[in-house]
Amino acid sequence: MNQPESRWSDHAVEQVIGRLLQVGVLLAATVVLLGAALLLARHGAEAADYSVFRSEPNELRSVTGIVRSAFAMSAPAIVQLGLVLLIATPIARVGFTLVAFILQRDRTYVWITTLVMVLLLFGLVFGRGAA
Amino acid sequence: MTILTIATFIGLGSFAAGLLGSLTGLGGGIIVVPMLMYVFRVDFRYAVGASLVSIIATSSGAAAAYVREGYTNVRVGILLEVATTAGALVGGALTGIIDPSILKILFGLLLVFTIYRSLQPRAEHEILSTPDKWAARFRLDSTYPTPEGRQHYSVRNVPGGFVLMFFAGILSALLGIGSGIIKVLAMDQLMRLPFKVSTTTSNFMIGVTAAAGAGVLLHLGYIDPTLAFPVMLGVLAGALLGARLLTRANVKWLRQLFTLILVVSAARMLYDGIRAVL
Questions:
Q1: B101: how many CB neighbours lie within 10 A of its CB?
Q2: Is A128 close to B216, i.e. CB distance below 8 A?
Q3: Do A11 and B70 touch (CB under 8 A)?
Q4: Which of B24, B63, B83, B260 has CA 20 to 30 A from A130's CA?
Q5: Which ipTM value was assigned to this complex?
Q6: Could B81 and A94 be called an inter-chain contact, meaning their C-beta atoms sit closer than 8 Å?
């Protein structure tokens, strides 16, 4: 099963995964909070209506567009960047699990984890779903 | 209403949903979408987008604690994540095609199933100890902490669990939920994992499943930042507080309150969906 002599025992991996998830969520929440404060300061008094779906503008829909607009200090884009960091947190967790399985020389799970990673990145980068 | 006013109320409502979901152990995701739709008049698609990103935050926060306690079966989680992420990508692709009225009916039916499951007593089934062909192939058998020390358990029906997880992934992206209820059903009932292992491994998988779906919904323009921030921050704060209060809270009347909210949401979702289809 697991190799107790390895530095990357299942237990050690679990500890790092736990910490990674906490840090990721905290970081994402901080960026969202900063963007939200800026958004409310600039646009708080404007009217809000979410009852009709219009889809978001292009610069808030792709990772590259969000990063570019966030660096231009667009408040909605900073919130969106925080949400992208949130989406990236479980992906980073899968990435770390992959490294751990490589170090454990667990070939079956290296393949399985790679597959999960590919599916996740496909959704975030291309956003085409399975179609 | 202004953005500031509505964000304040949505933040408070989401906080309550996160708190209630965490205290009852049923997850807040399933009541966030009905709340946004019927209390705040948010379009179904925006509600699904905001709910799905908030689920990543709460499940990752809770999973962090459970993984370190040693309940989570990481191998079972990773293997089944192949099915849930593939399902979430399929669900994301379907979301633009399926009429929202049909999705409301589906949501209503899932709420009915959740009510049914939450009213059933939680009986721990027999823990199996003999290995199964698939479980041995993927080395899924493991141990979990009990008051008498770590106990060994075996895993059953891996293909069946895999198929059910694929559908859990589809529903997650379509409805903006974690579909923990179906994940636990697959692991506890089909694969015969101990109940605590099933719930914590489900939580571990929900973040990854929701991330796959959220990536697709982001590209579809379902994630509105002015709506998503009060939902995400509110649900996260509520869930974190809930985790702290858990040992002191009177869970019984909270569960009854939660069930009542589920009943009202189910009735409204089914009524809306069926009326639009007819």
A1: 16
A2: yes
A3: yes
A4: B63
A5: 0.91
A6: yes
